[in-house]
């Protein structure tokens, strides 16, 4: 009898009615013959409310005490979901992170899972119980309650699936799976049946948002089969797994995009060994995430362009100004109201001309590419915000993503 | 350097402002040179809100999951109070019940503390930290989160004081201490400087309500000095401790009373060995708390009268009806709208005539005594509800309780 790990986010357990719906999904899986471990987040806005309380008490965020505070959110969810299961006649038991044996680093606010002691979970599963485990939290070697940071519940679910050698880790969300692109932008966007871990990492990092990249990374490292599916509609979702070598595989799987991008250019840097290092270390220390970086040399001087989230622009400008004396650059320019559009697909690596086709499509639409970045499985372009929708639709059409998806639905 | 345990109830930590006030009280104690352990309850109405959520999810109360749910309430409080302390520059750390080493029975909803492993608390105290411990909760030997039931936070505080051999356990409340009687009923009621454990047990059980009887019992067994005091006004409270042999000690310490009492009389029972046993076992199984019991024999038949809380009347009548066939009694009568008024004092045991004086006072007021019960340190009477205030005032005057209290204030 196989083990299935099911993860339910805060929206899925946001009210007593939704908790009962989740209980039904768990019972359905149990009745199909699986041993079930459900991993849940805090209810709806609970975390926000707890953070608000903390803000009222102290301006400073004390990380250990924030973990102590926030970890109560999932503890409430597991208790309520277990009550719902038991009220429906299911033998179930709730477990906090420390009770489930989730051992983490001794680091508060953003700890990584180091080990999972599975003995307690296994003995309950052997008794035929459904387990309801608090996501997002664990315990350090010193007996401290820790939290895993953003996407923590996804990571808990995948890590438990790895430790228990589960058949699959089902991530329940409010969408049906991973799409070729955002259906709100491209009406013909269609659900993918399968994406590889690497493709999903690109989708996740680029803002597809159905599963946290840390969890995908974990799944990749431990070969956990993940399925992203809807908690509202009973339809197959998108499986995330090892890339299989298949002929006629589609080259481009989908299109990811990200709004509110700003391109910053530092002009006229002297050419030194540590110039790049100083610039990007300073920005990293300020918490600014730099995405695409381009360096070019003009007349014995160096220009550096990079893209950031527009919300980080102020920090970026201040940081550069602080370092101006050391860096000795001429000027800083920036361009706001940009966006990033990327095509993703494992097949790209063996298919030359994919990037060229993308540039052709954009050129035909009269869209100027401001920056380009490529990896083995993606091509990213920075363009103006206002041309984003046109670009995404044109690329979606150009790579025939809607047609491919329809084929796969027919053969399902 | 002595250890002081301070307990703050739900009202005291009911808002961010109150939490900061509690933090100030803790810091004041620390500055006086004490090592401080603060024990806190869940904020204000948190427990009620969690119970409401549980009710929405399941009609049945699953005790293990209720403990999982309710124990989050104190966890929120300890995190917030610790943040407040740290924001004021105090080195503090929060501890859940299991982190503080509170080991309980393997029983949910109403577990008793079996042991406290003090090593973790002691090592933090040695580092100069203020400890903020979650009241009301502990962990069983199986690693389950348990709760201690009503008055649990008082019990946690006293148990920690016993385990750490603290100088005193301060119970902070919204009154200044233990009074000769309820000041809302008798305007001349005054605060007592000292009551013995035994006296306090009678006061607590009879409804004085400032500290839970279980905690007093614990303090008595482990010789913990307890002080009940106001969290709002900085005045000495009431010390609860070992009775000291003092001449001229006041015979009666105070007057406790309880409203909504009903007297039930079962008439015409055959005289059998197990009649009493059957009646009161059945009632106990229904959760009916019987207080005063009087048995008398009339013409080869037995009558039993007992007092209960009026809210238990329906259960009592149904239970008796169910047992009628076995018990073979003639009829059941009851009298509602009664109350119980008791005088309490350790000196009573060596002072004959105390009960007589009480009856005289009631007789002079024209108040009929319906039931009487006595112990070494108290005399309880059941009278009509409408005469309660008159009775309490008259007894308070008759035993000169207001005068005695004024003397003790002068000598303070």
From TrEMBL, chains A, B:
Name its pathway. Answer: Amino-acid biosynthesis; L-lysine biosynthesis via DAP pathway; (S)-tetrahydrodipicolinate from L-aspartate: step 1/4; Amino-acid biosynthesis; L-methionine biosynthesis via de novo pathway; L-homoserine from L-aspartate: step 1/3; Amino-acid biosynthesis; L-threonine biosynthesis; L-threonine from L-aspartate: step 1/5
Which cellular component appears as one GO term in the record?
cytosol
The text of the family note is: Belongs to the aspartokinase family.
Q: Quaternary arrangement and interactors, per the entry?
A: Tetramer consisting of 2 isoforms Alpha (catalytic and regulation) and of a homodimer of 2 isoforms Beta (regulation).
Residues at which substrate binds? 47, 74
- The protein's name in its UniProt record: Aspartokinase
State the organism of origin: Priestia taiwanensis
Taxonomic lineage is: Bacteria, Bacillati, Bacillota, Bacilli, Bacillales
SUPFAM superfamilies for the chain: ACT-like, Carbamate kinase-like
Keywords, comma-separated and alphabetical: Amino-acid biosynthesis, ATP-binding, Diaminopimelate biosynthesis, Kinase, Lysine biosynthesis, Nucleotide-binding, Repeat, Transferase
**Which superkingdom, per the lineage?**
Bacteria
**One MF term in the entry's GO annotations:** aspartate kinase activity
Function comment: Catalyzes the phosphorylation of the beta-carboxyl group of aspartic acid with ATP to yield 4-phospho-L-aspartate, which is involved in the branched biosynthetic pathway leading to the biosynthesis of amino acids threonine, isoleucine and methionine.
Q: Where is the Aspartate/glutamate/uridylate kinase domain?
A: 3-229
Q: Which InterPro entries match?
A: AceGlu_kinase-like_sf (IPR036393), ACT-like_dom_sf (IPR045865), ACT_Aspartokinase (IPR054352), Asp/Glu/Uridylate_kinase (IPR001048), Asp_kin_monofn (IPR005260), Asp_kinase (IPR001341), Aspartate_kinase_CS (IPR018042)
CDD domains cross-referenced by the UniProt entry: AAK_AK-DapG-like (cd04246), ACT_AK-LysC-DapG-like_2 (cd04923), ACT_AKii-LysC-BS-like_1 (cd04913)
- Binding-site residues, ATP: 7-10, 173-174, 179, 184
Catalytic activity, as annotated: L-aspartate + ATP = 4-phospho-L-aspartate + ADP
Query: Where would one find the signal peptide in this protein?
Result: none
